[in-house]
Amino acid sequence: MKATREVQERLLALQQLDSDLIQIKHKASTLPIAKKFDEVNKELQAKRDLLVAANTERLDIKHELSRAEVDVEQVVSRIERDEKRLSSGLGTPKELEQLQHELGSLAKRRAELEEVELEIMVRVEGIDLRIKELELESAALETQVNDLRVKKEEELSSLESSAKSTTDSRTQLAPTIDADLLALYEKIKASGDGVGAAKFAGNQCLGCHLIMNSAELTRIKALPDDEVVRCEECRRILIRLD
Ligand SMILES: [Zn+2]
Predict the structure, then answer these.
(1) What does the pLDDT look like over 8-36, one tens digit per residue?
(2) How far is 200 from 212, CA to CA, in rounded Å?
(3) In angstroms, what is the span from residue 163 Cα to ligand 1's centroid?
(4) Are the beta carbons of 207 and 198 closer than 8 angstroms?
(5) What is the rounded distance in angstroms from the CA atom of residue 76 to the CA atom of residue 95?
(6) Domain positions in the chain
(7) What number of H helices and E strands is found in the chain?
(8) Which CB contacts under 8 angstroms, 24+ apart, belong to 139-148?
(9) The pTM is what?
(10) Ligand 1 centroid, distance to 19 Cα (angstroms)
(11) What pLDDT is recorded for position 181?
């Protein structure tokens, strides 16, 4: 295959653009900021789950507290009723004595129930504090996630515009290369690691870094400038620059 030296150099420039595109793509898919964003976002979701659980727990404790309050109120109203009857002095001495006895038991019961109520109130305070902490932590994480999102999008959009300008250059350059040479290049590029053409520098293929033996070197040097040469090792198109 034949191609002028200028065309071969343009092919090398095209290879550079294609390599740049691969690099940009790789960069976009491995952005450290994107990884960080995912990590912090996950942390935020976990914190929000804890917050939902804490709020549910708070509701349960509040229900428990309401029940405990009702229990105390019931005992208190029985005590008030008994005290009223006692202070009225109505009833037989035996009945009054029974009332006295009941009041003693009720006072004990009231103390027990108030103790339970107090314990629940302490638990409400505890969960309130925990919710407050979780809310603060969530808010801090949310700020962090939003900042990271903005930075990530900035980096991605800058890579996107690089990719776009590189693609534009490629679109302009490709038609200036002979169709059969371009087709060969695309074929080699697709079968390899995205490199279809490589510089031939000194006695080395910069595609696979093979050093040519002197016989091969002499053969290549003897070929006319417009001869399309390929590396014996990696089969890539070799662009002779000297
Ligand atoms: Zn090679």
Answers:
(1) 999 999 999 999 999 999 999 999 999 99
(2) 10
(3) 27
(4) yes
(5) 20
(6) 5-24+178-240, 31-173
(7) 5, 4
(8) 141/40, 141/43, 141/44, 141/47, 142/44, 144/40, 144/44, 145/37, 145/40, 145/41, 145/44, 148/33, 148/36, 148/37, 148/40, 148/41
(9) 0.77
(10) 16
(11) 97
The amino acid occupying position 89 is: G
113 Cβ contact list (under 8 Å, min separation 6): 68, 71, 72, 75
- Name beta bridge partners: 229: 238
Q: How far is the CA of 126 from the centre of ligand 1 (A)?
A: 70
Backbone angles phi, psi at 192, to 5 degrees: -100, -145
| Ligand 1 centroid to residue 199 C-alpha, Å | 9
| pLDDT digits 0-9 by tens, 65-90 | 999 999 999 999 999 999 999 999 88
Fold topology of 31-173: Helix Hairpins (1.10.287)
